[in-house]
Amino acid sequence: MTKFQPGHTGRPKGTRNKLTGDFISALQADFQEHGAEVIKIVRIEEPATYLKVVASILPKELEITEGVFDGLTDEQIAAFLTLAKRTLGDREEAGDGTNQTLN
């Protein structure tokens, strides 16, 4: 059995990149021809697989860059939450199922 020499990976340089590029090109060509119909078939016949594919392309982390609480201090946010909890508690105590408006 021949061992690899130091610095040699066993495959010519660039082979993996070429294979990846060729695969992506072939996949893109196939998708252009059949993509929408295949997606529809998978969605109908294999909904679990369809959802896995959808989930796999979603970002792993959600970054919120602008929010409704921007510019508020921690104390102001805490006061808002306290008021909201108190208001929701009042609704539960009323028990009539009506929506009350805040003044």
User: What sort of overall outline do the alpha carbons produce when their principal axes are compared?
Assistant: elongated
The class by helix and strand makeup works out as mainly alpha
| C-alpha termini separation | 84 Å
Listing every helix as H and every strand as E from the N terminus to the C terminus, the arrangement reads HHH
Biggest sheet character: none
Uncertain regions spanning at least 5 consecutive residues: none
Structure description:
With 103 residues, this protein is mostly helical. The protein has a domain at 15-45. It has helices spanning 15-45, 47-57, 74-94. α1 packs across α2 (47-57).
Summary keywords:
103 residues; mainly alpha; 3 helices; 0% strand
What topology emerges from the helices and strands here?
Blueprint: H1 15-45, H2 47-57, H3 74-94
Helix pairs in contact: 1-2
Describe the structure concisely for a colleague.
The protein has 103 residues and is mostly helical.
